Amino acid sequence: MQSNQDVEVCFLPGWMFGAEYYGFEDKTGLWQSSLNKIRPVSAKTLIGFSIGGHLAMKWFLEGRSERLILVNPVIRPRSIGALILCHLRYLLKDSAAGKLDWSGTLSFKYLPVALQSCFKIFGFNFWQMIEKCRPDKVAMVFGAEDDFFASDKAKQLLKEKGFKIIEVSYTGHHWSKEMRLEIQKLLN
Prior knowledge:
Elements: E1 7-12, E2 43-49, H1 52-61, E3 65-71, H2 80-96, H3 111-121, H4 126-130, E4 138-143, H5 152-160, E5 164-168, H6 177-187
Parallel strand pairs: 1-2, 2-3, 3-4, 4-5
């Protein structure tokens, strides 16, 4: 794991997953250390998946990156309770459909610190941060079937603001090889 070094790409994973699960090298240890112990990474491109996108956007706004790719960002304004219920609905639906791969889940020994970090990251307001971003420097990739964390209305609003929105067919909020292909196209 590298910290505080310039790298080409830094991937910030979704909650309780390691970056390796998504096919990226872990540069931060996100979800394995408390948020205040994680050193921000400077990278040409920051990529954030789900809730990891909030932290990636925060670092992007601090000038730590030239480009930002958000993958399935959590953009609906919700209370923590509503987000937990939404997450449970997502897990139940995608698990029942056989779309979830639990092999990349971190050990439950990290659960207390991961929960603490998650609550802190949810304190970063997506809409306030996105208003400060230049649309030509930010792209967003969504699963077309992600009806839990990103509404069609929110995606349309982001398009109207000039952000590049890519929707991946047959994919919900989970990671897929099709998402990886879209990210590769954006990186090239």
